[in-house]
Structure formats: structure tokens, C-alpha cells
Amino acid sequence: MDAASRPQGFADPGKATSARQPPRVSLEARLLRRLIVGLGEPPIEFMLDWTGERVAPKGVAPLGSVRIADRQTLLGLLRNPRLGFGDAYSDGHLEIEGDLVQLLGFVYRSSKPSGPGSSLGQRLGEWLNRPRRNTLHGSRENIHRHYDLGNDFYALWLDRTMSYTCAYFPTAEATLEQAQVAKMDHVCRKLRLRAGDSVVEAGCGWGSLALHMASRYGAKVRAFNISGEQIRYARQRAKDLGLDGRVEYIEDDYRNITGRYDVFVSVGMLEHVGRENYAQLGRVVRNALSAEGRGLIHSIGRNRPQPLHAWIERRIFPGAYAPSLGEMTQIFEPWDLSVIDVENIRLHYALTLRQWLARYESALEQVRARFDEFFVRMWRLYLAGSIAAFETGTMQLFQVLFTIQENNQLPLTREYMYPR
Amino acid sequence: MDAASRPQGFADPGKATSARQPPRVSLEARLLRRLIVGLGEPPIEFMLDWTGERVAPKGVAPLGSVRIADRQTLLGLLRNPRLGFGDAYSDGHLEIEGDLVQLLGFVYRSSKPSGPGSSLGQRLGEWLNRPRRNTLHGSRENIHRHYDLGNDFYALWLDRTMSYTCAYFPTAEATLEQAQVAKMDHVCRKLRLRAGDSVVEAGCGWGSLALHMASRYGAKVRAFNISGEQIRYARQRAKDLGLDGRVEYIEDDYRNITGRYDVFVSVGMLEHVGRENYAQLGRVVRNALSAEGRGLIHSIGRNRPQPLHAWIERRIFPGAYAPSLGEMTQIFEPWDLSVIDVENIRLHYALTLRQWLARYESALEQVRARFDEFFVRMWRLYLAGSIAAFETGTMQLFQVLFTIQENNQLPLTREYMYPR
Q1: What is the ipTM metric for this complex?
Q2: Which residues of A fall within a CB distance of 8 Å from B415?
Q3: Residue B50 pLDDT more than 90?
């Protein structure tokens, strides 16, 4: 953001300050200065509305601005920067001047950890921010809170297939719906899905992948999900499409999967499984796969083990956790499952989320008819922050293809995934 | 192997026995029976030459035969089955009737572990079989013992490019040399190698990849290796090809790499790094990569953490270890390196090794001119056992492509790896 486009309404620039000028600086500004250092000095100017002061990192031209409404909000930020920022933005006591995604990108870029190990303080923080447990009951609660917000709400800004996971853009110009269909095809191709294959899906959302596998590939699918709203919607869709003979939607936990299948697939459920259950998930997968079975798990991930952003885990995805690839291998290694292929498509999630955010903003009127302004802003921050997280490499998206140990049936090369 | 093709010269079939017939069974046969159970009862018949007894798993038609020459050899097998088998085969006191690769495949298939956790006994065994340390000095010793056996020995059975790592077969019918060139191209494509790129290679073997990168892609390569024999050979090749201005071979440890590069590449060195040095390797990689740098590590791997086969580590690759994918992530995660792509090409290694074994058998006369019969048989067992290990999924081959955290320059899809 250049000087000309800097937002109006700020206090007298003459009062701009830095930690180098202690005499004229309020206690609040000094505390804020410490917070900025703790954040890694992002190129952002903070404005204290009630004192008129501006605080920015030393020697850096600010590229974005944050306005803080009152002392109470600042204290919330100082207590817990991540949670405080999200909550203050949601309730309107913190305002962003300029491009929200860009500003959040600055914050992510400046706060990268580096090198191995972690301090006691970090580990304590991680423990305090640990995700809620995903017991059979806990998972139902956690999933209900996010996915049962109302199918019509999600329909406002998702594409027609109602896919709520990272799409796959053959080119950056593809439409959202094209990219979601391409994602389903990409998954089916990786799995070499063939007519007559039996599939079990863990966490099926509104059911689009199961329908796609049945209608386009001739598979027979049993799809598990513990969101009642989603299952209801998916069943109706299958019926409307005349596919209810080939796709069965089961309102139950993945831990209760029984039977043997040619294919195990799970797109966007692992984030809700919880690290403590990875070996158990692996056992479910191992037991579900036939000798020549193939499996694919698609999940948000991280470059290193790290708790989810505290605000996201508290306000958006209770109980969620995005594993590192090393953590994901804990699903496979106890059961000698062979990892065949891993693809990191994080930039596709940035593209997906940009489309969701644009559609969400276009549908604001209808969103406001359903939810209050706190929710409206909270959801915007969630989508915008996620774009920034994927664009800066703070978050990853892993698709992991695997088989049981001795399955020699996959083609020698991956060219089969890229038909032309 | 059917009855008709069963090898001749066995003792009187009337003396065939099993653990169910204790009165007529020698102590040796009973001990061997316990060993067979411990091995998971592979469909193999064991013949004790000095008693004329045959021992086979109960209720299974044997598909292969092993003849044990004397009591001493049996005791060696009982003490340490893996080490004992390899040593007894090498010195000729253990003979295989029929197809060696097939028989070793039966052994691998029957001895699969399953489920998480490991007993104290297993862990003790792993500690006793732990690989030799890879300190700067230890690595030199370990590498010298394998790679400095003589360039002319390796030239007998490697292809013309002198590539001693897993090849990449575009089709199963490709020649070994075609597949080795295809492997180099596959690696270069994954890395999006372009003219003018600077490359650092860790563990360059006889130098073929570095030459390929310079001659076909216009890269400038610094290649590290601590095998004096290999470096000498590689330098001569570069000179002969007029590439010594673009490729520099450095006789030094990867830990002494300095400078920044567009590309870090390491094909078949990680097996010699040692788990204890993975985070250190990650630091070397992180420091060597420019902001838009790409890296690739190609290594033999496992489905779960497990020591290398004891005989292989003792007699063939001192100090070697094949990591699970989870263990490999310990290279990347401390430094926020982003894993972009993982490909498991273990079946390509089985194809590669089949070609090496066939060429080795064709060159036996020349091998015998250099080495004694113990070496000749040891090397055959190493190649045959490796085929069996990769075909049964006991061993994996991972190619891991990575970048520093925020490198948004790679193409959206992997189609660029598959030009047509």
C-alpha cells in the first residue's frame, strides 16, 4: 500500500511514534511495541484510536494498517494475540485498513519459526491451545458446530457441487466448479477407480465425491459422515440423481467402518480426527482395504508439528488439527501401509479460498439475513486468513496415496494421473 | 516350483519329517523347526545334509529348498538367522535349490511384522544391529568399504552411465541405460532445472547426474562425494567430455557444503547419512537453497522404522540405514522445508536390480578374476535379496521434492514432469 492509498481518519501523523522515542509514548503504545516485536515486526502500522498514537516497526515503511478501538481491545491482544485479533476483528473493535488478505499475509510471513526444538514456553502455549478431544461424542459436537450451520448458508458461497475442500485447478483460470470436478477426477485417477470397484469414504461432506465416483466411474460407494445436516442433504441428492442404489450415506463415525473395499478415500476429514487417533485410523484403513486396495487421504497439513491457529480452533473448527507430513505417516507406518505418492497442492487451496471469499462477499446480504455482524466478520476473517496461510506456505495441503505393503498392481509411472 | 522341477540329490524322501513326529526327529531338526516358525513359516523345505532330514512348514507344499551342509552352519543360522544365512550362503555351506530371488521373496513375504509397537526383545535386537556411526571419519570408512571396491568391478555390471541407484523405467521394456537416463531426466524435470541454474549435489557417485545436468540442461554443478575412487573417475569423465568448466567434483563430506544454489539434489546418499544426522542434513539443505530453490532427495526407504537387514549392514553397506518416510520428514520439518511431492518407485528398483544381477552373472568370469568365490556369492545374494525386498514391498524407494516454505514458483500441477 503506498502513501496515497493509506486509509483516512487516522490521528495527527505528528503523533506517530516508535520505541525510540520513549518520552512521548503512552504505556499502551509501549506494550503494543513489544507485541509487534513478538510478532516478528510485520510491516504494519497500528493505530490506537483512544490516544491517537501510531506504532510501527522501526525502519520499515508500513504496508498496511490496523486500527484498535479501545484499551480493552488492546489488552485482549496482549493477553493472546491470535485469539484477541480474531475476536476483536469479529466484534468490530479492530479494523483493517486496506487489503485484509494482504495484511494477514504480512503477519504470517513475519512470524515464521525457524530451526529445530521448541522452548518450554512454546510447549506450554501449545498445551494450552491444544485442540478439543475427538472422542466419539466429542467429534459429533465438534463437527456439528461447524458443518451444521445450515446447508443453505454453505450453498450461498460454495459451488454447485457443494464441495467444501481444496479444489484442483488444471489452470488458474478454471472456474470453481470446474476445479472441484477436476479435483474429484484427480482423486479418482490417482486411485485408478474402475467400474465395479467398491469404495468406502470417510467424511463425505455433502456427498459430491461419492456421487461423482458412482456416476462417472461406476463405483459402488459407502460414505460415512457424522454431520446430520450433510447426510440428510447427500441422501436427497443421491435420490434425485437416481444414484441411491449405488451410493449409501451412513450417519456414523469412521471408527465404525466395517467390510473390505477396493478403495478407501477421505477428503478433508483428517483435520477432525485428532493426532491421538491416527494409529486407530490406520487400523480402520488397513482392515478396510482388500489385497489390491488403494487408499487416498487428502488433508490440510503443516511443514512442522504445530497447533492450529488458536482463533481458528476456538471459533471456527473446534477440535481440528492440521498434521505435518511426518505426523500423517503415523497413520500408515504401524500397519505397513505403503505411501505411493504425496502431492502438496497448497496453492490450489489459496485459489479455492479466493473464490469462496469473493462469492461470500457477493452474498453478504443473504448471510446477514441469517447471522449477526459478528458472524459475518468472523467468517470473512476465517476465509481471508486461510488464503494468506496457504499463500505464505504457513499451511499445506497433502494428498497421500497408499496401498497395503505388497500391492504391485499400480502402473510403473504416474503418467496415468495425467491423461491428455 | 512344482514337484517335477524339484532339485535332485536330496536324501531319501522317506526320512521327510515335521515337528509332529518327534520320535524320529534329530535335535537339529527340531531346532530348525523352531527357526522356521520364527521366520513365519515360509513355504521352503530345509535339508540337513549330515542327517539326511528334511524340515518344512506343516501343511504347506514347499516351493523352494535350502540345503544346509553341516551342524556348524545350522548353529550359525540359529544364533542369528539373517547374518547366518548370508554368511553361510557366501561361504557355500548353504545352498539354494531353484530360483534364488523367488526363494528370498518367500522369506520376506512370510516375515512381515504387523501392528504398532515393538517388544523389548525387538528393540534390543535393533540396538544390537544398530548401524555403524556416520561421523565425518566413520562415513569415510563406511563409504570406502563399498564404493572403493574398484571402478572396473562396477563397470562390469552397471550401465555405461555408471549409475548405481534406482533407475526409472518409462516402460518395463526400457534398457538399463535408457532407464538410467530417464531417471536423470525425471529428477531434472521434477526440479525444473533450467540453463544457468546452480546445483549442489550431495553424494554424486561416479558423477553421471552432474554431467547430465550440465550437458543436457546447461546447469553449473558442484558435486560432493567422499569416495576417492569415484571422484577420480568422475573428474576424468568431466575432462573427457569437456565439461570440467561446468561441473566441479569435490572430495568432501556433504556437511561441508557451502554457498547458495538454485537446486540441491542427492540421489542415493541418504542411506549413508544415519538417522542421527537428519536434522543436520536439513540445516545443510536449508542453508544451501536460495529463496526460489528446489531440492530433491532420492533414497531407499521403509514402510516403518526398522534397521537394515543385518547381513546387508554388516557385509555390504556398513553404517547404512533406510528410513521410513516419517523419518525422512525429520530432515525437512525442523527447517520448515515444504515437501511438495513424494514418489515411491520401489518396483523400478526391482527392475533395475534384475538387470544388474543378469549383467553380473554374465560377467562372472571377470568377477572371479578379481575376487574369491566368497565375494562372488555374497554379491549375488546381495543383488538377488534386494530384488526380493523391493518386489515384496519390504523396501521402498522415495523421491522427495521440496522447497523452502514460501516458494510459489512451482507450476500448479505436476503435468510438467510428464512432457509428451
Answers
A1: 0.91
A2: 418
A3: yes
